[in-house]
Design brief:
The chain is of the alpha/beta class. Helices cover about 30% and strands about 10% of the residues. Helix 1 (about 1-25) packs across helix 2 (about 25-35) and helix 5 (about 150-175) packs across helix 6.
Length: about 375
Amino acid sequence: MKWCFRLALVVLVLIVAAAAAIFFTGGLRAVIAWIGKPRHGWDLALKAPAPDFAKEDAWAALPTKPNGTDLLPDGVGAPATNSQVDVFFVHPTGYLRGADWNSPLDPDSQTEENTKWMMANQASVFNGCCAIYAPRYREASIFRYFAATPEIFELAGEFAYADVDRAFTHFLQHYSKGRPFILASHSQGTEHAMHLIERRIDGAPIAQRMVAAYLIGGAITDKDVAALRTIRACASATDLHCIIHWATYGEGGKPVRESVDKLLCTNPLTWQRDGALAPASLHKGAVPRTGEYALQFWGKDIAAGVKFGPLKAPMKQWTPAECRGGFLYIADQKDNPFGRVDIMGGKNYHGLDYPMFAIDIRENAKMRVAIYLSGQALSRK
């Protein structure tokens, strides 16, 4: 009997070790991909109809209709009224299912609730300076990153970008109409927003209308920025017509590089490129997230009735921040009011890229807009 007990104990230890390996070495992603990935190749017949950006329901955020972008942290000012500047915000991945490689744009789904989460917890940081526009688009599924072949990876990304490109054209022609704008994004949205800069903005007259580009939580490298003709990385809190980017990790985290090239890192406590360690005393404030981002990778994509309530008061001087090797490191967030923060493993705080620096982004965007508008006023004199 003793040997049976010992054998059972060894088997249990091996099972636990295997489970740990799955969760802490990236194997979890492989398991999710195997279970939930699309079972077909590239098929345009399975795609949802293209969004009609002349219709309000093609937009996750418009200044003319209520949405989460009008939420304010408790005790923080008021949204900008009669703003002279717009924000074009490209949201990150909310489609976590494998029915297809691109979102079907179902309005009654957890995917749509995830998009609302992004409006409330990310895009809302710009309501102190600007009118916010955010298109819905046939975003690539999370399985593009987990399980796609190189060919499908490219096709799904370009398919999603085509919607963003058309939305940007509609925004310029029918909403912006010559006004200055901020380009902002996160994660998958940052990939598409960077394409807008590379293909539509860099070297064109419209670059002078772009106050700044807050392209956060992506994989923008120093090499990517160096390849641009006229747009550069922001080097200070007051630079204009430039790109801001960071990817957040907890202290002691072990980033897995998506590129052999160093990522562009802007320290949001100092707004310096490759910014050195900045003390928590410079941190203007994190804002705890409202609502629940649905992390469900299989099953029917049905809305769960998630509500997005008021945002809590900012947590000032919460963390130091430092750019090291292209990544932004902050204090370990094991004990925090944000809930799950390390869902990707390795202390990857991807979901905190915006909320952790919500007030820092808010105040910096207001300042850059003020500098831009004062420069416009002087040029008219």
